[in-house]
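Quick one: examine the sequence and fold tokens given here and explain what the tokens say about the fold. Here goes:
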Amino acid sequence: MIRNRSERIRDSVTHYRRACTPRAGVPRYRSAEQRGRMRTLACAKDHLCFLWTHRFIACRGASQRVACGRTGSRRVVLGGTYRVSLFGRRRAAAAVNLPLDVRMVRTESAMVELGTVMPSFALPDVTTGEMVSLDSLYADSPPPKALVVVFLSAHCPFVKHIAGELSRLSADIGSGKFGPVKMVGISSNFVGTHPEDAPERMAEEIKTRRYQFPILYDETQEVARAWMAACTPDFFLLDHERKLFYRGRLDGSRPGNNIPITGEDLRNAIQLCVNGQSPPGNQLPSMGCSIKWKPS
């Protein structure tokens, strides 16, 4: 059945109103207005929005502006993850103009039960090509009291944001500040879509960022899946028995939130682990760019 223009507009408005109707677990948008091919949506701070238009969208929430083109559907998260409705037939990718130009979906780490013995792995070092296994990382006698494993990438602005602290943390670990602790990075992104995360580029990152830990290349992405890694950066802290002790963020700093980068959450967890104390009670998830999986 062919619908006329007024019917299509009426249906679009109906879908739009449904998207803005308060429901349990769904953020309420304060107001919205339509102006031809430009649509403006005023959002409450820290809300996720699916936005659509022919040409341009501006989001006046949390002092952020959102501009987009007709390149498919993508969500924008201004902190936190929420359920929201899609409306309209035309969709647009949106990009938040943050200081580090965050243009991808923010993803939180998936919680893994503390005390879980993490799966073994054997992956090549991006610098030397030598195989490094979880067994070899615990081969010292006595074994390290803690092992920091971080899934990371070169392109992600969330990783770039904390690169300086990762360098400082690795230097402190290498100097023995925490005691017998080791640190290793894993790169699992699909280089077919993100060549900047290829092994040779990650090797350059080690030199540029002055990381004092090896980065391993998870080409098959089997390790990322086995460990339930979800984003970059994504942190795992294991104790001397290879059991998961901490599964959380580095600290509360994010691109654009003006919170100083201290690494306090992870640093505190490392010290507790080395001291043989209980894990931190309130473990907040890390947040970053989603891992770029190979197409199925």
Q: What stands out?
A: The helical segments are 5-20, 134-137, 157-174, 199-209, 222-226, 264-274. The chain has a mean pLDDT of 75. The chain is about 20% helix and 25% strand.
